[in-house]
Amino acid sequence: MLLGLVSVAVLGLLYFNVSTLAENSSRKGEIEKLQLEIEDANAKLEDIAPLITSYKDKTAALSSLATVFNSEIDYLASLEILNRLSKKYQISIDEILPRLENTLPAVQGELTDPEYTVERYALDLRVTGRFLNIGQMLDDLEENDFAIRSLEINTGVNGSNVYAVMGLYSYRLVAK
Amino acid sequence: MSANDIAEQIDFPRQKIYYHIKKLEKANLIFVAETEIVNGITKKSYLKVEDESDDGGGTDQLDDSAESGIAEGDSEEREPAESVEYEPVSEEPTEESTTRVPREEAQVERHADELKPTPSGESILDKLLTRSSSATVSREEPLYKETAASEELTESIMLGDVVYLIPEADYSLGGIDYIVRSAQRKDGKRITLQEKRSLGDHLERLRIDMTGESDEPVADFTTEEIHEEKEREEVQKPKGVGWGLYLKRRLSGYINAVTFAEIDGKVKYLRASITQRGFRILDQEIYHLPMKIDGEPIVDLPSLVQYVYRNKIKKKNWQKLYLAYYSNRYSFNMDPLRTPDLKGKELDGFIKTSMCKRFSVEPESAIVNWIEYKSRADDPQRYFIASVGDRSPIEEDYRKLVAAKIQPRFTTSIAKIQFDLYRYNFPEDHGDIILVYIGTHRTSITIINDWEIKDSRRSIVSADDFVDSPVHESGAEGSELSSISGLEVGDARLKGMVSALRSLDVRNDKKARAVFEKLESEIYATIKYFKHEGHYLSKHILVSGIGTNLPNIEEYISEDFEKTVSKLVLPETVQYADDALKIEEEDFSVNIGLLLDPKDRLNLLPDEQRSNSRFIYPLNLGKIAAAILILLGSFVSINSYFEAIRLESELKSHQLELSTLVKQNSLFYDISYKLAVTELIHGTKAYDQYLSKKVFQVLKFLTSALPEAVLFDRLVFSKGEDGKTPVLTLTGRISSSGAESNIVLNKMMFNLRDYEMLKQVTLRDRNQNTDGSGESGTVNFTVDLNL
To answer: How far apart are CA A13 and CA B636, in angstroms?
Structure first.
């Protein structure tokens, strides 16, 4: 009887110990995994300072990307430069087709910190003129913050003149 | 005329005469006329109270005077006397008396029977009133110190060849205790408890003889004095029964036990196994020491134990046996003790010193053990019952057995054995009892209150006083039992004593009656002493010992003491194994009594028996291993459990920390995202500008670096179908004569491919027109320039 009691006690203890040790081992594994994640998270926390600095710099730099136009009218008025350049290079502008549709990714709207939203509009020009003049005009347009989106130049339209269709991008800052 | 003489004359027990004198005093029929101190005992003389109908007036003295009115046997005195005995029931009943009426009625009826006229025509009271001349019926013992100082040992007494110094005291119970406790040998040698016991016996004998000679009753025999007025509340029996007790016994290593009970050379051997329900007797035998078996002399208990072990038990089992023995050769004294609130070694030392001092023995010559009793929480003192034994004979026997590789485990006093038997036999009792053990040479009277031994006293009036040829007491100081020649003598006398006791009629045999009354007086005096000491007197007495062979002894004691009396016998749970020899006529209760306390309390073996690893370790090896296994398992379990708790806590802590970090990291991801968006805007514009610049550079290159023969018809720039592969497509012609156009084309292709701004140059289409002369002319081409 005593032997039975002792056996039951020992078996009970054995079962308890084995199950508890297994559970403890599992807990240790989980803790190790958590510790790695914590290390990783801590490392990220260490990197966040330069990240914030960089973000602030980039956000501040956004205001230098373009000119502020608070209305569509102001923006359209700014296209007067096209006439000025066409006169300068004796280029005939056959058509100006501005498209008041922002072509930059919409995710920019999620930025809350910058004062301005950067927008990019497409603009198509149909011009006729000398090839070299068109080239110089393109050079000037680039200096005035326009970017070439597409270009098609056809020769033999009228003597030495060429006919060109220029697709441009112009940038604009809109206050939030 | 003495009380004895009155008793003889009226043919009535002497003790009852004292009882009736008390009754008369209570009924105001007699009163104490004179007191006198004789040998420290107060002797009282009584006078008869003047009766209203007695014209003579005055009082008659109950003393030796033959002229006493009472002694003259005036028949006119009878009526008032009889009415006295009935007086209690005629009183106005109070609340208390009402509840006591049944008992008093019973007593009155009983007394009325006793007072009925005897065949001779006289009632007992008549006899008492008419014939008694003297009756000193109570005494008051002076108080003595615990032990006398050495300078107070002014008296001397010679016993055998030894002179003892003793203090001055009377021969009352307390006085003899005081003398014996204080006694020292005059020769300066150390006195032993055995010697003290002999001295005590001698003084007791003197006391009894003296009281007999002086017509002094040994004790008041007024049963009221040995009864309690109030019932006590029941006290719960201490725990430690059933499975717990059985398990404890198993783990304590006495599942198989061998016991020896030695009383005056008669040794009862019993081997038993302890079962869950009780005991199974496997073997029992009676031996008489000294004896000779197969030429081998066996003179003492250790040699008998060795003989039994060698012949009845396999040697490999020796160490598995629990050996307990009792011997009346050992001198034990038991006394209650109070100590300050000490602990540990301080307490041990205090108890040993106190008890040795109390019995004026040297600590190194005594073995002391004790039981502590519970005290009230606010009581600064601790309470014990302590036993003191003579070290020398106990240790001598112990060493002989250990030398023979037999480990004794337990020996104790008869009082403790009786207590254990009571405790085991009456588990549902209230824990209050008076235990009387009538041994061959001594009678032990023990008071139990609340399941605790409160006190135990001895008297020398015992069984051998009833027989003409008493068995001589064995002991350390030489007896005829040490001689082999006395082999048959002790046996015959012991057997003869039992037969003689059984044949006695203590009511009608004159000598037996006198001894029995003396015995009862001793018991009575002791019980009264217990009451005086503040102990509660139970209504029940349990008797045991060889003296219980006296016919009807329970009935007689019950009748005289007005208490219920029964024999303390072998427990009912004792069973015999099928093949065990059963000795019906012998009482083995002392042997079984040695097995009833699993804690071996009041053990008077030397302390070293508890630490004898040679014995304890092998006996408990399996249990120790199991215990270690369980302990280790438990340790691991506890450790694992706490580790689990710790890990669980750590896990939660990590999860919490990670959760906090994840929240903090969300800022990191938010900033990273916003930064990416910002960079996307910056990058988009930079890319647009870069591409514009590149297109412009390529156009400049085309106008300056290509051969003049090359004419462009169309130039288209686009960002490709996927928007990520900007391509400039040139469509033109080369107008040269003959094969020169091809050369120019090749040169143009060479120049274009050599230009670092272009990633790839592909001639997509090429055809050559022929003129009418059949010579080759203009070459049309289309070239893709990947920027």
So the answer is: 9
Other beta carbons less than 10 A from residue B316's beta carbon: 7
From B595's Cα to the closest Cα of chain A, the distance in A is 20
Could you tell me if A174 lies within 8 Å of chain B, comparing CB atoms? no
Residue B733 is predicted with a pLDDT of 87
* CB atoms B675 and A132 under 8 Å: no
**Do B643 and A24 count as a contact with CB atoms less than 8 A apart?**
yes
- Which residues of chain A are modeled with pLDDT < 70? 1-3, 156-159
Instruction: Identify whether residues B90 and B108 lie together within a single domain.
Output: yes
User: Which 3 state secondary structure label does DSSP give B398?
Assistant: helix
Q: Torsion-angle region of residue B641: left (phi > 0), alpha (psi -120 to 50) or beta?
A: alpha
B670 Ramachandran zone, left/alpha/beta (phi>0; psi -120 to 50): alpha
Residues B72 and B163 grouped into a single domain = no
Mean per-residue pLDDT, B503-517: 86
Do B537 and B513 share a structural domain? yes
Instruction: Determine contact: B247 vs chain A, CB below 8 A.
Output: yes
The residue from B570, B602, B619 where one domain ends is: B619
CATH, range A67-175 = 3.30.70.60
Q: Are residues B296 and B314 in the same domain?
A: yes
**pLDDT for B489:** 44
Contacts of A11 (CB under 8 A, 6+ apart): none
Nearest residue to B756 via CA among B722, B719, B786: B786
| B485 & B582 share domain | yes
B139 in a structural domain: no
Domain that holds residue B155: 150-219
Measure the CA–CA gap between B619 and B724, rounded to whole angstroms.
Answer: 94
Residue B272 in tokens: 């038993």
| Helix/strand/coil (H/E/C) assignment for every residue in A89-139 | CCCEEEEEEEECCCCCCHHHHHCCCCCEEEEEEEEEEEEEEEHHHHHHHHH
Chain A residues inside the 8 Å CB shell of B662? 41
pLDDT tens digits, B66-105: 333 333 333 333 333 333 333 333 333 333 333 333 333 3
B723 plus B588 within the same structural domain? no
Instruction: Let me know whether B402 and B489 are in one domain.
Output: yes
Q: B699 lies in a domain?
A: no
Per-residue exposure over B467-476, b if at least 16 CB sit within 10 Å of its own CB, e if not: beebbbbbbb
Note the pLDDT tens digit of each residue in B548-605. Answer: 989 999 999 998 888 899 998 888 788 888 888 888 778 888 999 998 887 888 999 9
Is a pLDDT exceeding 80 seen at residue B185? yes
Q: Which 655-714 residues of chain B touch chain A by CB within 8 A?
A: 655, 657-658, 661-662, 664-665, 667-668, 671-675, 677-682, 684-685, 688-689, 691-693, 695-696, 699-700, 703, 711-714
Q: Do B382 and B500 fall into the same domain?
A: yes
